Amino acid sequence: MHHMSGTQWIKKRRSHRTYRSDVPAEDVIRDILDCGRLAPTARNVQPWLLGAVTDEAVRRDIARLAEYGRFIADAPVCFAVFVRADEKYFMEDGCAATMNIIMAATVHGLGTCWVAGHKKDYGEEVRRLLGVPKGYTLISLIAAGYSDDRPSPKKKPLEEVTFRDRCGS
Amino acid sequence: MHHMSGTQWIKKRRSHRTYRSDVPAEDVIRDILDCGRLAPTARNVQPWLLGAVTDEAVRRDIARLAEYGRFIADAPVCFAVFVRADEKYFMEDGCAATMNIIMAATVHGLGTCWVAGHKKDYGEEVRRLLGVPKGYTLISLIAAGYSDDRPSPKKKPLEEVTFRDRCGS
Fold first, then answer.
1. Which site in A11, A59, B60, B123 is 20 to 30 Å from A52, CA atoms measured?
2. Mind listing the pLDDT tens digit for each residue in A124-168?
3. Is the model's pLDDT at B164 over the cut of 60?
4. ipTM above threshold 0.90
5. Is the pLDDT score of A109 beyond 80?
6. Cβ contact (<8 Å) for A103 and B140?
7. Distance of alpha carbon A21 from alpha carbon A76, whole angstroms
8. Does residue A46 contact residue B155 with C-beta atoms inside 8 Å?
9. Residues of A in contact with B33 (CB under 8 A)
10. Cα(A135)–Cα(A85) distance, integer angstroms
C-alpha cells in the first residue's frame, strides 16, 4: 500500500483473516512496535507492554485460547497489547497503541485483524502464556501478515454516522 | 506533514494544545470524518456518531464543560466521538474511530489533542449540547488545528515497553 497517498490507505484498510506464510522482515516488525510505543497516552503514562509473536508454537497456543482468533495460528506474526489495569485510561491507551500497530502494519503493506482481548476469559491465560507480569491486562491481539484477500464489508454512508456542529441540525 | 514517508508521520505525531486560528477547509474536515467512519469496528456494527464542531459558540460551551479541554475554545475545529453504549465493544470502536480521526488530521498537517470523554461527568452534558440522541455515550473530544508548537514529551525506550515472543525471555 506504499503507493497510496494522503489518507487513502486509512480509508482502504479492512480486516484480513487469511495471510501468506512469508514472515515480515525483522526491521518491519520492530518499526511497527515502535509506532505502538509512540501512540497517544493519557498524561504520558505509557502504561503498556507490546509484544510481537512470530514463534509458531506460541501463536498456536494463543489461537487455541482465542475463540474468534483461530487464524492467529496461520498469521506469520501476532501482536499483543497489554496495559496496566490500574490506570484510569487503560482502555484508551491500549486501543491507541493497537491502532498505531494496525496503521503501521498497513503502511508496511500488511493485512491485520484486531482480535478482542479485554472482556475475554482468555486474557489472563494469554498473559501467563506470554510471561507478562501480573497487573497487566490484555487489550488486543492483532494478527498480521501479507494478504491476498480483499474483504469489503458494507459500511454506513457518511451522512448516517457523522454530523456538523449539532446532530440533526 | 505530507512530505513524510512510511511510518514517520505516525511516529512524529504528538499532542498539540495550541493552534493557529485558520479553519481547515471543508473537504479536509469531511475527509477526516470519512476516515473515522472507516475505522475498524467489532462485528462491523459501526455503532458511532462522529461530529465536527467549528461553530465558535458551541466550542466555547464544550470547553467550559471539559476541565482538561479548555483549549477547545481556541481550536478551529473539535471532533466528538459518540458510540452506542449498549454495544459490548463500544470502547474499542470509539477509540478506533478516535485514532482514525487523529491519524487523518495528522496526514492533513493538523495538530490534535485527544481529550477524554468517557468516565467524565461532562459526557452527558456534551451529548445534550450537541443534540446527540440518548443511548450514545461520549468517548472522546479531539481538538484540532494547524499548530506551530513542537511538544516533545519524554517517551520510554523501545526495549522497556516491547517484547518478542515471550516477555523477559
1. A11
2. 999 999 999 999 999 999 999 999 999 999 999 999 999 999 998
3. yes
4. yes
5. yes
6. no
7. 6
8. yes
9. 158, 162
10. 6
Query: Tell me: the pLDDT tens digits for A52-86?
Result: 999 999 999 999 999 999 999 999 999 999 999 99
Which residues in chain A are closer than 8 Å to B142, comparing Cβ atoms?
A: none
Contact at CB, B37 and A107, closer than 8 angstroms: no
Mean pLDDT (chain B) is 95
Question: Closest partner residue to A35 among B7, B37, B104, by Cβ?
Answer: B7
Nearest to B92 by CA among B103, B102, B81: B81
Gap from B146 CA to chain A (nearest CA, Å): 17
Beta bridge partners of B142: B79, B114
Please tell me the distance from the alpha carbon of residue B117 to that of residue B169, in angstroms, as a whole number: 38
**Does B3 contact A at CB distance below 8 Å?**
no
Nearest in space to A165 (alpha carbons), one of B102, B151, B78, B71: B78
Query: What domains can you pick out in chain A, each with its CATH number?
Result: 6-161 (3.40.109.10)
User: How many whole angstroms separate alpha carbon A147 and alpha carbon A109?
Assistant: 9
- B window 100-159, beta carbon within 8 A of A: 100, 102-104, 107-108, 114, 116, 118-119, 130-133, 140, 153-156, 158
Residue B3's pLDDT is 52
Window 34-73 of A, Cβ < 8 Å to B:
34-40, 42, 44, 46, 48-55, 58
Alpha-carbon distance values, A90 to A99, B68, B95, B149 (Å): 14, 18, 11, 27
| CA–CA separation, B70 and B113 (whole Å) | 12
Per-residue cell: A21:
506464510
